[in-house]
């Protein structure tokens, strides 16, 4: 199995497991799912075998997009907490 | 309009047409990006799965959003995300290892014949260098003399094949680009790491990561004792090439190293900043393992 395929398989298992587990707890905030998907992406990226250079660059782009989304969710939550 | 000189004949060339007006050599600079159009995705099983997951994720996510079912929205989001990744992350585009072997073999056989014709029985000495993507060169001496045992580091910039490092006639040898030089260069660039700046103790983990990213091998262990470095590797690919090279080019494999062994020797030379020679290389095709021992000059 190629490194990219291994990454996708591991990430799929982790992401769908998260959906299953959180649905058991009747989690109602989509933000929580989103943040967990993003965190899992970075964890799996570190644990999975390293990518060849070209694929690594594309994964970095995905990571940057996810960081922007993560920052957006975080900012929204902080604004909700602040008086 | 830019102008430069041909590195074959030295004549003036125009960079626009890319051909030397004197000798007609086509000149494609290494730093120029090729303008070959590549498809965003290849139609393969991963593409089919990617399209399926993206569409299913989008539809399920949108419908669930209107119905207000959060777990199903999350399921759709996860499917969509994985589908996009499957489509966006390209196939590595690797050629089959047999085709690679067939392509590389003739040039290595030429080196083997050169070593044989010149009757060079001494082992190649990897000359240390530094710089990201810069690979050591190999000096194969005619005879071992005090001068040829440690050829000058400045030889790395030489473009000659037949070089003399001392005053005596026997202080000669041939200077080769390391067969695994480009592999090492690719690894360094992918890791964005100059191996001459990392200690030898940390080399194993970086080499392991680099070879794994190229999907060809993994470094199992690296030990260092009494000026010798022992490295054990496990091949994922290129088993056929290693086997064939040992049979067809034994002198090259033994004295200079196959591309894979040469890349490791070059990495050791860079990291240790010492002249390195191959002491022994044992390849076990059944276990896909290579055990290498390198000597480092004092």
Structural summary, described in words:
The complex is a heterodimer of chains A (83) and B (298). With 83 residues, chain A is mainly alpha-helical. Chain A has one domain. In chain A, 83% of the residues lie in helices and 0% in strands. Chain A is flat, with a radius of gyration of 15 Å. In chain A, 19% of the residues are buried. The mean pLDDT of chain A is 89. With 298 residues, chain B is of the alpha+beta class. Chain B has three domains: 1-36, no CATH class; 45-88; 94-298, no CATH class. In chain B, strands 5-6-4-3-9-10-8-7 form an eight-stranded antiparallel β-sheet. The chains are: A mainly alpha (83), B alpha+beta (298).
Total separate domains of chain B: 3
Order of helices and strands of chain B: EEHHHEEHEEHHEEHHHEE
Mean pLDDT of chain B: 84
Total of helices of chain A = 3
Count of DSSP strands of chain A: 0
Over all CA atoms, what is the radius of gyration of chain A?
15 Å
Work out the helicity level of chain B: 25-40%
Encode the helix/strand succession of chain A as letters: HHH
Total helix count of chain B? 9
| Percent strand of chain B | 15-25%
Going across the major beta sheet of chain B, what is the strand order? 5-6-4-3-9-10-8-7
Task: Label the structural class of chain B.
Answer: alpha+beta
Low-confidence segments of chain A, ≥5 residues, pLDDT <50?
none
Specify the overall morphology of chain A: flat
Estimate the strand proportion of chain A.
Answer: under 5%
Please state the overall shape of chain B, judged from the principal axes of the Cα atoms: elongated
Provide the low-confidence segments of chain B as ranges: 32-36, 38-42
Write down how many β-strands of chain B occur, each being a DSSP E stretch of 2 or more residues. 10
Rg measurement of chain B, Å: 24 Å
Cα(first) to Cα(last) distance of chain A is: 52 Å
Helix content of chain A: over 70%
């Amino acid at each position: 199995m190629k490194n990219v395929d291994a990454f996708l398989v591991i990430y799929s298992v982790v992401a769908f497991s998260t959906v299953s587990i959180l649905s058991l707890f009747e989690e109602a905030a989509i933000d929580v799912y989103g943040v967990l998907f993003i965190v899992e992406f970075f964890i799996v990226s570190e644990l999975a075998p390293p990518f060849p250079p070209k694929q690594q660059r594309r994964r970095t782009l995905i990571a940057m997009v996810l960081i922007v989304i993560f920052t957006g969710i975080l900012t929204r939550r902080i604004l909700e907490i602040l008086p | 309009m830019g102008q430069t000189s041909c590195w074959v004949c030295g004549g003036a060339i125009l960079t626009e047409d890319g051909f030397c007006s004197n000798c007609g050599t086509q000149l494609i600079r290494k730093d120029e990006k090729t303008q070959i159009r590549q498809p965003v995705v290849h139609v393969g099983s991963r593409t089919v799965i990617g399209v399926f997951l993206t569409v299913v994720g989008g539809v399920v996510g949108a419908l669930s959003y209107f119905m207000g079912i959060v777990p199903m929205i999350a399921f759709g989001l996860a499917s969509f995300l994985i589908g996009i990744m499957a489509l966006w992350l390209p196939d590595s585009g690797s050629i089959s290892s047999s085709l690679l072997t067939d392509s590389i073999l003739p040039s290595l056989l030429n080196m083997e014949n050169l070593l044989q014709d010149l009757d060079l029985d001494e082992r190649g000495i990897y000359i240390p260098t530094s710089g990201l993507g810069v690979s050591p060169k190999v000096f194969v001496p005619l005879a071992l003399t005090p001068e040829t045992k440690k050829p000058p580091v400045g030889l790395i910039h030489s473009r000659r094949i037949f070089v003399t490092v001392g005053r005596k006639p026997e202080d000669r040898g041939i200077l080769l680009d390391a067969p695994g030089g480009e592999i090492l260069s690719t690894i360094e660039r992918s890791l964005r790491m100059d191996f001459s700046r990392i200690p030898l103790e940390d080399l194993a983990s970086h080499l392991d990561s680099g070879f794994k990213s190229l999907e060809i091998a993994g470094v199992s262990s690296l030990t260092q004792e009494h000026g010798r470095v022992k490295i054990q590797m496990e091949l994922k690919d290129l088993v056929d090439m290693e086997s064939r090279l040992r049979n067809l080019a034994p002198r090259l494999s033994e004295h200079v190293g196959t591309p894979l062994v040469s890349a490791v020797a070059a990495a050791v030379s860079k990291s240790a900043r010492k002249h390195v020679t191959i002491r022994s290389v044992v390849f076990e095709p059944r276990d896909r393992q290579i055990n290498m021992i390198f000597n480092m000059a004092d």
